TrEMBL record:
Protein known as: Helix-turn-helix domain-containing protein
Origin superkingdom: Bacteria
InterPro entries: Cro/C1-type_HTH, Lambda_DNA-bd_dom_sf
Length: 105
């Protein structure tokens, strides 16, 4: 199933175990804006993709165009939250409805 960018961003945030406010502070995006994007009331802007991509480049193929998620890249990331995502995926703690299993390599 094809997900919109806001839905993919929500999956990333939930895998990290962060609230909208926590994720927004981390990447520099207002939580109200995150809510609107996640609820598909607004589209993600290029600047928002860039902010997230600077911190989590390993997630950008999936976040931007629903490309593959390379587990080895997540596991070896310098960013602790990417390594946390890898651990949660390996432990089977993927939030339902995001179809991540299809994109794991």
């Amino acid at each position: 199933m094809k997900l919109r960018a806001g839905q993919r961003m929500k999956a990333v945030r939930e895998l990290m175990g962060l609230t909208r406010n926590e994720f927004g502070e981390l990447v520099g995006i207002d939580w109200v804006r995150l809510r609107n994007v996640e609820q598909l009331n607004a589209k993600m802007g290029e600047d928002e993709f860039a902010k997230i991509g600077q911190m989590f480049p390993e997630l950008m193929p999936w976040l931007t165009y629903e490309g593959d998620i390379v587990m080895e890249d997540l596991k070896s990331s310098q960013e602790k939250l990417c390594r946390l995502i890898a651990a949660k995926i390996e432990a089977g703690q993927i939030p339902p409805g995001f179809y991540l299993e299809e994109k794991l390599k």
